[in-house]
Design brief:
There is one protein chain. The chain has 203 residues and is an alpha+beta fold. It contains 7 helices and 5 strands, in the order H-E-E-H-H-H-H-E-H-H-E-E. A 3-stranded antiparallel beta sheet has the order 3-5-4. Strands 1-2 form a two-stranded antiparallel sheet. It is elongated, with a radius of gyration of 26 Å.
Amino acid sequence: DKKAAGKLKGMITGSTQMIERKGEEVLEVANHCRIMFTSNEGWVVPAGTQDRRFTVLHVGDGRRADHAFFEALWDELEANSGGGYKALMSFLLNYPVDRDFLRKTLKTDELTEQKIHTLDGHYLWWLEVLRDGNLPGGEGNVVDRHVLWHDYIEHANVIGQRHRSAATQLGMMMGKVVPDLKARATKRADGAGRLKNVHVLTF
């Protein structure tokens, strides 16, 4: 949902937020949102290929179901009429913070995984082509672009992609990710030995 993703990104980096109160005028306020997600899902955040908003981390399972450990934490927080909460707040408020560092997202393997989950279908198809190491129907570095198109459509069917890119959109995408890509018209023999006009891509 690109509309929802846009709203989320605005909440993270926008300088202001619009507050819509029921029955009253919309109010614009300064944005002080600090957002953290926890999830067991494979796809958690809409991280684009050039993402600069999200730091994604994997939480280890070393303390999973360690009830004694977490009970001890709660006991310390609740001790002395909740003095643990005050001590924790004091620690956090006085912890030295490098604000330049905070503005940078960590480049983790988990972030890369989220970027792959966020890829549009035609980019995901091209990633699979690169991983396979072979151009569909290609001869060396030359391939019939209609063969590429049909291979993309087959991939879209396999992954259940409902909104597919048109052939022109696919060509535009490839022009971005393959800077030296060249298109030309040529003649090639079909299965019966007859020459036919084809459009090929040279990598």
